[in-house]
């Protein structure tokens, strides 16, 4: 691959097609935004995030709005310029890949976005939208396009007849299935799912999650699943990465993180997510009271632990030094008190 | 294949507009007369008849004659060639220079964008007429060169318009999605961007082309244009003879006005027809998820005239039950009708529930189940044409149907407050939040601005906002979603209501913020406020409510004490909706998903509305209306012939 000339020379390059290497590897990713206006200070949207998506695994990226989770997805897809760090896909550095290089990668790496209403051109038939990349990127023949379209529609549980219709004729859930079909026609091995179920009803969310689970099984797909919903990530993903203020605060096997969090932020997220059982929910509420109130309104500190101002366990040290990710049992957390937090456990 | 089909549809819908069809015909006549002037015109353009100079219309010269006795009609037909070609040259230069520059600037951004913007600023400062005079001095009498330059000078204006239209479309998710699937910029621009901006381009180009016709006329008038017959030289000729033969101005003036008007009207029609392709065809009954829902009450709604009526609706088994006079809100057998595609259709059918003082009740169900419509009908804020056809809504013992407009206004925002889903867009961005809360206070209680401001501060304190003085002076965009929702709640509390209706108040918020907002609502409820919470989230329901009504396709299918409802749902829909929640599921295992979707009101089946998705459906579910009947305990009512038992649920 041609490396762009402004890229650093000493870039770790895994050998091409090494089956043991992770499919996607992000190293020390930094993304800065500049607010409109001439002298504005840049905003650090992502601050040194590293993560791997091994072949056939699903990695969940969790955090609140502003945590940088969607920015990471965009940076991987090349929709947002990377300030520093590397994104390696199947051994190839794609951090600063040109559009024509991206075009080759699009055959293996696809995306499904949050808003099923905005992600399709309303004036183009659904079949046209789904097969657009086949015609304009892969330049396949008519017959193969037709075959791939039918297979993808079948995979997401939509009838073949829907190809002739326009997006306005479908419900949100149906459109999200079509958006998944659009990704599938390329026969990808990896899909970035950016909050694909957050705009949907619970019942439709369940349908879409089932489609994604089924496709992982049948097509051996890997997902990077971006969501604010820990429950959904826990259900779908093998591993969970929790982001706060642009940095990873905790990572580990999904069930470990969801059941015994080691970072106070993860704990606060879990305690805040309400559960359907009123009795359990009451218990959680008390846990949350004990875990401290999040909405103190104080501005986020720009040194030390970024969560310190919201953290009920914060000690003096948290205000001066920023903790780094350190192993805690099976997972890793960026907290000086990780062991203590884990031992406290979660109620309910 | 699809393109021919859609372009045929385009032409048909364009011609269905009378104005567009008429202007198309007029333009066709003008173009044919001009192009075929050699065949159609009665005289040569320069044929002279000195005996009949400056005559009015006659049988030999339909539009009269000009200087040297030349036939006006023939000169107009031949002259149209010069004028129209000149205008076409100007229009083509305008589009060819302006569109690519604008689209590239908008799509690529960066340095090219800067160059285009600065060039545009520069060109705007150039006096067009003087440049044209210079061009004509270099190429004497060459109107086509002047028109090309005129097009170039206009192009930066078009580039700016196209640029901003493109900027908006570039941020559309479907353009992002196309980029992510590795499609070339060229294809994206041609397929996704150009069609969307083509309406704008057309309007701009037609206005400009019409302007070019005027410019050509002006040059002709000044004697700087061509010496041959053209619409411009006709006007010049008329002006020379205005004193002795004013008639001459009428044909040339009329043709120019007709042409310009037709071009503009046609362009409007084309733009509207193009725009129709980007809006969903049918008027949707339910608003899409998101901000639109919040505004449903404010915009596009008409005062519904609630009619308590004796329409003997099937399934109104509990209709006889009288409204509870002690309840804050008592809804009895409420049925609401709305015209859908012109057909009056029930969108809410036989909904009953009560809310007691200090009680929090939840309305839960999928989108399209009628939750928001129920709430809107309580406030008399149904969409245009919607009305209550039977049943009643009673607020603190008074039937809403008997209220006049003033009383209804006191009800809305007075006795009942409304908290919307999208806090930021429900606030006006051009006023401070304190001012907006103060206005809400003043609209229900006359008081001075100063007192209202003080009261607004008290309200902002009540919703636990920090540093209220500062927050009150902020504009909505300066607040986080959670703070904006607190402001929204403060505004809902402005008139000291007894009940608030909260329509998905936390859907747009992060979980930690959601928990704070729910805690606030719980505190307010503890102080005696009644809450009607509309949600699709069981967790939110469990956090706030004591009781819930499950809605499906316009009906309440089950209502019970929340604990009983969650632990032992009796309606198959309640059970299915609970099972969809991934909380209960084993990670990685398929969720017991409810297939299909809620049927829209025109497709509600006979019998049970849930029959098409129900795993337990039997023959008797398909006929006759099913009443909301008492369930296994006193607090419960179920609309099902075969309610589930505990064992079935755990299965």
Give a brief rundown of this model.
The complex is a heterodimer of chains A (348) and B (651). With 348 residues, chain A is of the alpha/beta class.
Q: What is the count of β-strands of chain A?
A: 12
What's the name of the CATH homologous superfamily of the largest domain in chain A?
Answer: P-loop containing nucleotide triphosphate hydrolases
Question: End-to-end distance of chain B, in Å?
Answer: 52 Å
CATH architecture of the largest domain in chain A, by name, is 3-Layer(aba) Sandwich
Strands, helices and their partners?
The complex is a heterodimer of chains A (348) and B (651).
Chain A: E1 24-33, E2 43-53, E3 58-62, H1 69-77, E4 84-89, E5 92-93, H2 99-105, E6 109-112, H3 126-138, H4 142-155, H5 172-184, E7 190-194, H6 202-219, E8 222-227, H7 230-236, E9 239-244, E10 247-253, H8 254-259, H9 264-272, H10 278-291, H11 316-320, E11 326-328, E12 331-333, H12 338-344
Parallel strand pairs in A: 3-8, 3-9, 6-7, 7-8
Antiparallel strand pairs in A: 1-2, 1-4, 4-5, 9-10, 10-12, 11-12
Helix pairs in contact in A: 3-5, 4-5, 5-6, 9-10
Chain B: H1 2-15, H2 18-35, H3 37-40, H4 72-108, H5 110-124, H6 128-138, H7 143-170, H8 173-180, H9 185-221, H10 231-240, H11 249-276, H12 291-295, E1 329-340, E2 343-355, E3 360-364, H13 371-378, E4 387-395, E5 398-399, H14 405-411, E6 416-419, H15 433-444, H16 449-462, H17 468-472, H18 481-492, E7 499-503, H19 511-526, E8 530-535, H20 538-544, E9 547-552, E10 555-561, H21 562-567, H22 572-579, E11 629-630, E12 637-638, H23 646-650
Parallel strand pairs in B: 3-8, 3-9, 6-7, 7-8
Antiparallel strand pairs in B: 1-2, 1-4, 4-5, 9-10, 10-12, 11-12
Helix pairs in contact in B: 2-4, 2-11, 4-5, 4-7, 4-9, 4-10, 5-7, 6-7, 7-9, 8-9, 9-10, 9-11, 10-11, 15-16, 15-18, 16-18, 18-19
């Amino acid at each position: 691959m041609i490396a762009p000339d402004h890229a650093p020379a000493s870039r770790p390059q895994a050998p091409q097609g090494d089956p043991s290497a992770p499919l996607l590897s992000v190293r020390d990713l930094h993304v800065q935004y500049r607010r409109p206006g001439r002298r504005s200070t840049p905003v650090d949207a992502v601050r040194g995030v590293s993560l791997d998506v091994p072949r056939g695994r699903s990695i969940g990226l969790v955090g609140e709005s502003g945590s940088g989770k969607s920015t990471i997805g965009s940076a991987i897809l090349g929709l947002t310029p990377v300030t520093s760090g590397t994104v390696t896909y199947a051994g190839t550095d794609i951090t600063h890949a040109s559009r024509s290089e991206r075009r080759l990668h699009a055959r293996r790496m696809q995306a499904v976005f949050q808003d099923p209403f905005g992600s399709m051109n309303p004036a183009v038939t659904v079949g046209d939208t789904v097969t657009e990349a086949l015609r304009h990127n892969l330049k396949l023949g008519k017959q193969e396009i037709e075959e791939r379209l039918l297979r993808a529609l079948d995979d997401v549980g939509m009838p073949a007849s829907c190809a002739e219709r326009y997006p306005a004729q479908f419900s949100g859930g149906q459109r999200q299935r079509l958006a998944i079909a659009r990704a599938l026609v390329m026969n990808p091995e990896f899909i970035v799912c950016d909050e694909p179920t957050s705009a949907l009803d619970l019942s439709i969310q369940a349908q879409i999650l089932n489609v994604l689970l089924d496709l992982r099984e049948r097509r051996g797909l890997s997902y990077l699943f971006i969501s604010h919903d820990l429950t959904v990530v826990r259900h779908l993903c093998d591993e969970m990465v929790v982001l706060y203020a642009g940095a990873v605060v905790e990572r580990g096997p999904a069930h470990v993180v969801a059941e015994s969090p080691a970072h106070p932020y993860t704990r606060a997220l879990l305690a805040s997510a309400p559960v359907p059982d009123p009795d359990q929910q009451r218990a959680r509420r008390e846990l949350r009271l004990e875990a401290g109130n999040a909405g103190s309104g104080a501005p986020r500190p720009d040194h030390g632990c970024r969560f310190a101002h919201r953290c009920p366990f914060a000690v003096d040290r948290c205000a001066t030094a920023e903790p780094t990710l350190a192993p805690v049992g099976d997972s890793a957390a960026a907290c000086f008190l990780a062991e203590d937090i884990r031992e406290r456990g979660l109620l309910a | 294949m699809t393109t021919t089909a859609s372009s045929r549809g385009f032409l048909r819908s364009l011609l269905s507009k009378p104005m567009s069809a008429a202007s198309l015909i007029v333009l066709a006549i003008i173009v044919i007369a001009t192009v075929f002037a050699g065949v159609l015109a009665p005289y040569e353009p320069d044929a002279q008849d000195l005996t009949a100079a400056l005559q009015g219309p006659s049988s030999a010269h339909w539009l009269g004659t000009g200087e040297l006795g030349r036939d006006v009609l023939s000169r107009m037909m031949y002259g149209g060639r010069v004028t129209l070609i000149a205008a076409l040259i100007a229009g083509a230069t305008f589009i060819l220079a302006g569109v690519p520059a604008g689209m590239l600037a908008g799509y690529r951004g960066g340095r090219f964008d800067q160059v285009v913007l600065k060039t545009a600023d520069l060109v705007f400062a150039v006096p067009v007429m003087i440049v044209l005079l210079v061009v004509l001095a270099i190429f004497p009498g060459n109107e086509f060169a002047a028109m090309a330059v005129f097009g170039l000078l206009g192009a930066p204006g078009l580039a700016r318009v196209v640029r901003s239209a493109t900027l908006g479309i570039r941020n559309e998710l479907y353009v992002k999605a196309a980029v992510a699937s590795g499609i070339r910029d060229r294809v994206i621009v041609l397929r996704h961007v150009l069609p969307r901006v083509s309406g704008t381009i057309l309007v701009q180009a037609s206005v400009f082309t019409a302007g070019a016709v005027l410019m050509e006329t002006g040059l002709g008038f000044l004697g700087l244009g061509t010496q041959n017959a053209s619409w411009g030289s006709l006007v010049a000729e008329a002006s020379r003879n205005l004193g002795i033969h004013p008639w001459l101005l009428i044909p040339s003036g009329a043709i120019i006005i007709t042409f310009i008007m037709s071009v503009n009207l046609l362009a409007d029609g084309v733009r509207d027809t193009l725009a129709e392709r980007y809006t969903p065809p049918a008027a949707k009954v339910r608003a899409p998820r998101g901000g639109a829902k919040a505004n449903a009450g404010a915009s596009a709604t008409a005062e519904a005239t609630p009619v308590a009526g004796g329409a003997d609706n099937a399934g109104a088994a509990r209709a006889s039950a009288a409204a509870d006079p002690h309840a804050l809100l008592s809804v009895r057998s409420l049925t609401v009708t709305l015209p859908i595609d012109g057909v009056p259709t029930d969108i809410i059918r036989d909904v009953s529930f009560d809310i007691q003082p200090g009680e929090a009740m939840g309305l839960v169900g999928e989108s399209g189940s009628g939750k928001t419509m129920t709430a809107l009908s309580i406030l008399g804020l149904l969409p245009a044409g919607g009305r209550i056809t039977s049943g009643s809504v009673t607020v603190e013992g008074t039937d809403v149907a008997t209220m006049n407009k003033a009383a209804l206004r006191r009800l809305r925002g007075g006795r009942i407050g409304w908290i919307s889903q999208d806090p930021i867009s429900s606030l006006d961005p051009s006023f401070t939040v304190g001012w907006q809360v103060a206005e809400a206070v003043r609209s229900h209680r006359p008081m001075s601005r100063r007192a209202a401001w003080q009261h607004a501060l008290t309200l902002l304190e009540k919703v636990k906002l920090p540093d209220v003085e500062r927050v009150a002076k902020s504009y909505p965009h300066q607040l986080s979603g959670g703070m904006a929702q607190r402001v929204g709640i403060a505004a809902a509390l402005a008139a000291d209501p007894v009940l608030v209706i909260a329509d998905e108040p936390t859907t747009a918020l992060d979980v930690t913020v959601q928990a704070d907002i729910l805690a606030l609502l719980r505190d307010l409820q503890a102080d005696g406020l009644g809450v009607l919470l509309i949600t699709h989230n069981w967790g939110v329901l469990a956090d706030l409510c004591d009781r819930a009504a499950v809605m499906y396709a316009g009906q309440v299918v089950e209502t019970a004490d929340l604990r009983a409802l969650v632990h032992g749902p009796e309606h198959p829909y309640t059970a299915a909706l609970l099972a969809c929640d991934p909380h209960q599921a084993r990670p990685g295992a398929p969720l017991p998903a409810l297939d299909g979707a809620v049927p829209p009101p025109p497709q509600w089946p006979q019998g049970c509305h849930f029959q098409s998705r129900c795993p337990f459906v039997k023959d008797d579910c398909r006929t006759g209306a099913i009443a909301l009947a008492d369930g296994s305990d006193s607090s419960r009512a179920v609309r099902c012939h075969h309610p589930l038992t505990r064992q079935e649920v755990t299965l």
